[in-house]
Write a structure and sequence with these properties.
6-stranded mixed β-sheet, about 15% strand, alpha/beta, 12 strands
Length: about 375
């Protein structure tokens, strides 16, 4: 091979790792159909047309209710963001909300839910943890007639009989996983070395990671270099050391990362910076949730995160209030599921959150009756 040819191949490989969807020129590595589909799906998800498509009718506000939000850990920005949204919604509907932090451990979560049931509120939120960890407390809540609503409590949105949830609020994990993997496929031109960060102790996260891995495997040129299983409560302690180890093992082969939660990149950034890696990558990092303000700040400043697939955290907090109101009024769950969206520096407009437009006004109109 001549030096000119080698230089041309190197240029093509570098181009395949830069820019947005549909602009890369890297090798398709034998998956042209997958690459084309990924580019089309990513372009659609990057659209900023986020008009409200949720409920516009429902029961008027049932007065005098109290809600307890049991958080997996308030150090998880997604869990905390939904709690904040619920608190604002409660103020609008005229209810009381109390947040109890499970602090990330099974014992802490069990104690928090026990305390919540003892308080005998009108409703309890399962905030980001597996209800199977708290089966005894869930049974107590059910026996007491306290409705439960989950946020990321089970894999699918909507009502659940086992565990007994009036509804579970989340984007569709299949959509989030697929678009995160598609972003890597599209951005890399079908040729990437990927590290996947996840927390297998959370069934929702494990399912998301499995789906990401399956989609990446659809493109033979995308290689999963490592599956980094780091519990979210341990992320700040373990992620920097893990990133340093991965850099030593894979070097330039590591071109992209996907994490089931943006917080991994907050903890990875110091190690990447210390290793002399540029803020804009490689590795180019995409978070498959939750889209907290710090993730937006990293994306907007191009500092060790290129994209996120955000949950509309504030809107989902308001949705929790609306779903409880439907439960209290003897009505079924709304069935609303937020659409999948990708945020990059190119389409964020400098914002630090993403929510569908008009949701607050829509819920307030419903509650006024």
């Amino acid at each position: 091979m001549t030096l000119v040819a080698a230089a041309a191949l190197l240029t093509a490989a570098v181009a395949g790792c830069g820019g947005g969807a549909g602009t890369t020129t890297g090798p398709s590595a034998g998956c042209p159909a997958v690459l084309q589909a990924a580019r089309e799906d990513v372009a659609k998800a990057e659209s900023t047309d986020s008009a409200w498509t949720g409920p516009t009718t429902g029961p008027a506000a049932v007065p005098g209710k109290s809600i307890v939000y049991v958080a997996q850990t308030m150090t998880n920005p997604g869990v905390a963001g939904v709690a904040q949204g619920l608190q604002r919604a409660a103020k609008a509907i005229g209810w009381d909300v109390r947040v109890i932090d499970g602090e990330g451990s099974p014992a802490g979560i069990q104690a928090a839910l026990s305390q919540a049931v003892t308080l005998r509120p009108s409703g309890i939120v399962i905030g980001g943890f597996d209800p199977q960890l708290t089966s005894q407390q869930v049974a107590r809540a059910r026996a007491a007639g306290i409705p439960l609503i989950g946020w990321h409590a089970v894999d699918a949105p909507g009502p659940s009989t086992n565990p007994p949830l009036f509804t579970n609020i989340t984007t569709k994990v299949q959509d989030v996983a697929r678009i995160s993997a598609d972003w890597v496929i599209a951005r890399s031109g079908g040729g990437a070395g990927v590290v996947l960060f996840t927390d297998d102790s959370i069934p929702f996260a494990r399912t998301k990671a499995d789906l990401i891995e399956q989609r990446l495997a659809d493109c033979p040129g995308v290689q999963l270099l490592a599956y980094a299983n780091i519990p979210i409560p341990d992320a700040s302690r373990r992620t920097p050391q893990e990133v340093s180890s991965l850099l030593s093992r894979f070097g330039k082969k590591w071109t992209h990362s996907v994490a089931i939660n943006d917080l991994y990149f907050a903890d990875a950034a110091p190690a990447l910076r210390a290793a002399g890696k540029p803020g804009g990558g490689p590795p180019a990092n995409v978070g498959a949730g939750d889209g907290d303000p710090s993730a937006f700040q990293r994306i907007n400043s191009r500092q060790y995160q290129a994209a996120t697939v955000p949950e509309p955290l504030a809107q989902q907090g308001w949705q929790i209030a609306d779903e409880f109101n439907r439960a209290f009024a003897g009505r079924p769950a709304s069935g609303y599921v937020a659409p999948v969206h990708i945020v990059t520096a190119e389409n964020s407009g400098g914002a630090t959150s993403w929510d569908p437009q008009g949701y607050q006004a829509a819920y307030e109109r419903i509650w006024r009756g």
